[in-house]
What we know:
Blueprint: E1 6-7, E2 14-15, E3 28-29, H1 42-52
Antiparallel strand pairs: 1-2, 1-3
Amino acid sequence: MSNRIRRCAHDQTYTLSETCPVCGRPTRTAHPARFSPQDRHGRYRRVIREWKM
């Protein structure tokens, strides 16, 4: 068990475990990635985000 809160993408349940206690699916970290002004790949992520919308 980790000490960072995690979230199920399916039913939006917050938990500390790797799997959702409600539906049993894997969870993801609920925290965003760290910001860095020297981010080499930030431009590509922004382009992909615009493309998906």
